[in-house]
């Protein structure tokens, strides 16, 4: 049987806001020396304004369009050897979920709702959590998104209480197994 084309050896971090994607991406970058692609930072750069203003002026749909366009470009560029940090809502669109798997090894960083609340409480940079009841908002968004994170992920890691270098080392080990094993489920697209 013919094998599908192999997947580039990127590590992609997905997961809810406050689950440590940027921190772990930096730790992986330090360990591996691979370039770090921070999707939110690229979107802000291109738009010439912070995410809060993109949401205010272009709406969530405008932001999601920019996010999907960037993800598609990353897939088409087919580069290898990158650490890719995504925004928490990248899994919302089904085409994005398929593209994520085509980009490489997808790691879902997660944490319980109370930890997410504590980590995001003082942030004013996350328009979706600017609510009178952020705990309810987190619960609602998590309930919707968890099946999507699960659908995309090759590996799930709870970041509560673990040190970032320790987590990055564990991810690296698993990614090495994944990329070394030709019979690995990378050959089955979701
Ligand atoms: C979002 C998460 C944010 C950012 C935007 C939307 C989301 O990224 O992309 O505010 O929909 O969950 P982080 O997960 O890095 O905070």
Number of helices: 7
Beta fraction of the residues? 5-15%
User: Structural class of the secondary structure composition?
Assistant: alpha/beta
What is CATH's topology name?
Answer: Rossmann fold
| Element-by-element helix/strand order | EHEHHEHEHHEH
Rounded to the nearest angstrom, the distance between the terminal CA atoms is: 19 Å
Describe the structure.
With 190 residues, this protein is an alpha/beta fold. It has one domain (5-184): Rossmann fold. The protein has helices spanning 21-32, 39-47, 51-77, 94-103, 113-120, 134-152, 164-180; strands at residues 10-14, 36-38, 83-85, 104-110, 155-158. A 5-stranded parallel β-sheet has the order 2-3-1-4-5, with helices on both faces. The longest helix has 27 residues, at 51-77. It is globular and about 45 Å long. The protein starts with 9 loop residues before the first strand and ends in a 10-residue tail after the last helix. Bound molecules: shikimate-3-phosphate. Shikimate-3-phosphate (S3P) binds at residues 17, 21, 40, 51, 87-89, 126-128.
SSE inventory with pairings:
Layout: E1 10-14, H1 21-32, E2 36-38, H2 39-47, H3 51-77, E3 83-85, H4 94-103, E4 104-110, H5 113-120, H6 134-152, E5 155-158, H7 164-180
Helix pairs in contact: 1-7, 2-3, 3-4, 4-6, 5-6
The structure holds shikimate-3-phosphate.
Could you give a short description of this structure?
The protein has 190 residues and is an alpha/beta fold.
Keywords:
190 residues, Rossmann fold, 7 helices, 54% helix, disordered C terminus, binds shikimate-3-phosphate
């Amino acid at each position: 049987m013919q094998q599908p084309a192999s997947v580039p050896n990127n590590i992609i971090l997905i997961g809810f806001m406050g689950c440590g994607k940027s921190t772990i991406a930096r730790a992986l970058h330090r360990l591996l020396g691979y370039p770090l692609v921070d999707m939110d930072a690229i979107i802000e750069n291109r738009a010439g304004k912070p995410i809060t203003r993109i949401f205010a002026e272009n709406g969530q749909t405008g932001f999601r369009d920019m996010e999907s366009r960037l993800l598609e470009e990353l897939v088409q560029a087919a580069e290898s050897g990158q650490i890719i940090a995504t925004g928490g809502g990248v899994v919302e669109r089904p085409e994005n979920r398929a593209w994520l798997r085509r980009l490489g090894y997808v790691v879902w960083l997660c944490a319980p709702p109370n930890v997410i609340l504590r980590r995001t409480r003082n942030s004013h940079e996350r328009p979706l959590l600017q609510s009178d009841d952020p705990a309810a908002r987190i619960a609602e968004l998590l309930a919707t998104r968890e099946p999507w994170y699960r659908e995309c992920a090759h590996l799930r890691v709870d970041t509560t209480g673990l040190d970032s270098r320790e987590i990055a080392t564990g991810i690296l080990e698993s990614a090495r197994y994944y990329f070394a094993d030709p019979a690995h489920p990378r050959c089955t697209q979701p």
